[in-house]
Each structure stands twice: as structure tokens, then as C-alpha cells.
Amino acid sequence: MLASARATLVNLIPPAMVAAFLLFWAYGPKALLANPWTLVVCSSLVTIIVLGLEFVFERHEGWRMNKREFFTDLYYVVLSSTVIAWMTQTFAEAPLQAVKTSLGIHTTWVGHLPWLVQVVMAVSIIEFGQYWMHRLMHNVTPFWLTHAPHHHITQLNAAKGAVGNPIELFLITLSVLTFFDFDQTALFACFNTTAVISTFAHANVKSNPPIWYSFFFTTIRHHSLHHSTDYESTRCNYGNSMILFDRIFGTFKEGESVLVGQDERRRLSIWEQTIFPFQPLIARYKAGRAASAQVANEAGGAAAA
């Protein structure tokens, strides 16, 4: 009886955290809500809390955090929040804002919608774009080359959603949210909500949220199957936070995978992940140089004869 009650409470942690952050952004002190650093602190807090839960409610021993995984994950978290964030702002959001201004596009009506409706709308816009970008990455070779490093991770942990090739990390952040004049706190609530859901979807936490939650949102069960060792099995459950889009577009698949990774579960170093999309070009260049060297050697041998 006690074990059953404990399991139920653990299963309710993800929706409880979503609710807690929504309540904070809806009713928190205005001075805090207006400060952009509050979002940074909240996002960091999500990762720290879920990492702690991994030690208490471990899902799989094979996914247990170690020093190498921790510092690799930390590198990508910092990369995403600095370099990738700057690239997104500079090369995507700022140009879109300029286009919006030049075309005289106004969406002030969005800011007059009920606050929770704005949050749901913002989450849906982001997740719709990420679903199709993610699906594209699994079905078109050049895009797959940028995304494949994310599938070479051999265990799932709280910060693994940030691990990947920098090109992919940039592409997956693209959205059209700039065109909509959302209330700032609604946007921050949206970012925190998706952070909670996607963090649990990558985490080594033995939590299986209720059916009503997993119908709409991605869970570790859905996402671990997406990270399975069989490439064909990865072509499902593309939703980063909203598994609902997979249900709508026919790419949802039930199941769970304990073993994750690609190419016989070969773990890539940070450098290998960084240059992975360019490997075909590098291999072609090396083959060309080897062929040229062989021709030169043969010519030299013929001249000597």
C-alpha cells in the first residue's frame, strides 16, 4: 500500500512541477516576473531539481550519471544558453522582428487573450515547429547529419536534451513566436513549461505520469523509444514536449527502450559531435588526397624505371 502511494506521488511530480511554475508566472511578484534573469534561474532550477530526482528515483542503472556525462552535459547547457541563444537572437529573431516591423504586422490582440490561453498558444506554436523540424531531421540526410550526434548519446539524463551538434541546436530553436505580441510572463511560462516537460522526457527518473498527461505531453517512455538503438524505431515520437502532434500526424508509437544510441551505441566525444555533419566532406577530401598521392607515387615509380 505504501509502495503504491509512493509510486503514485512520484508519477505526479512532472505535472505538479508544470503546475507550480505556471502558478509562479501567473501570480509571482511583479518585480521578479519582469526580470529576464528570473527565467534563467527558473530554467536552471528545473535541471537541478530533476538531476536530484535521478539520484532518488533512478529509472535505469545503466543511465546513472557519472563525471564524464555530467561535464559533457554542462558544456552543452552553457553552449545552448550563450552561443546558441546569441545565434538565435542575431540570425533568426532579430531579422524576423525587422520583417514584422517593415510589413507593419500587428498582433496586439494576442496580448488581450486570457493569460493561460496565451501560454497554451505559445507552447503549441513552438512545439508545432519543433515537431516538423525534428521530423525533417530524421527524413532528409543533410538534416540528419546535424541531428545524428544527439542520437549517439548512450544514456538519458536531465540535461541530455541540450546535447547535440551546434547546427542542430540552432535549427531546433527556430520559431515564429516573434510575430506574436504575447505577454512577457506568458512567454516565460511557456519556456519554463516546455523546459520541465522536455527535461523529464530525457531524465533517468522512474516517473510515469498519468494517462491524461502522457496523452498531450512527451514522457521518458515515449522519448526513450525515440532514442532506441534501431534507427527505424527512432522515426516516431518526434514531439519535444507535445506528443499530441505525433498522435495527430500519425507518428506516435507506444513503447519504451532501455538501450539507447546509434552505431552499436558508440558514444561520440564533443569534438566528434561538432564535426559530425562534415564527416562525408572530410572523408571525400581525404580520399582525394590519398588518390593524388597514389598517382604521384606511381608516376614517380614509372619515371625511375
Draw up the topology in text.
Layout: H1 2-11, H2 13-27, H3 30-33, H4 36-56, H5 67-103, H6 108-111, H7 115-137, H8 141-147, H9 166-171, H10 184-201, H11 211-216, H12 220-226, H13 231-234, H14 244-249, H15 270-275, H16 279-304
Pattern of helices and strands: HHHHHHHHHHHHHHHH
Q: What would you report as the Rg, rounded to the nearest angstrom?
A: 22 Å
Q: Estimate the strand proportion.
A: under 5%
The CA-CA distance between the termini, in Å, is 89 Å
Biggest sheet details: none
Mean pLDDT: 94
DSSP strand count: 0
- Computed structural class: mainly alpha
Q: What is the overall shape? A: globular
Number of helical elements: 16
How many domains? The number is: 1
Amount of helix: 55-70%
Note poorly predicted spans: none
Any overview of this molecule?
The chain is mostly helical and 305 residues long. It has one domain (2-268). It has helices at 2-11, 13-27, 30-33, 36-56, 67-103, 108-111, 115-137, 141-147, 166-171, 184-201, 211-216, 220-226, 231-234, 244-249, 270-275, 279-304. Helix 2 runs antiparallel to helix 10 (184-201) and helix 4 (36-56) runs parallel beside helix 10 (184-201). The model has no long low-confidence stretch (mean pLDDT 94).
Compact overview of the structure:
This protein is 66% helix and 0% strand. It has 16 helices and no strands.
Primary descriptors:
mainly alpha; 16 helices; 305 residues; globular; 0% strand
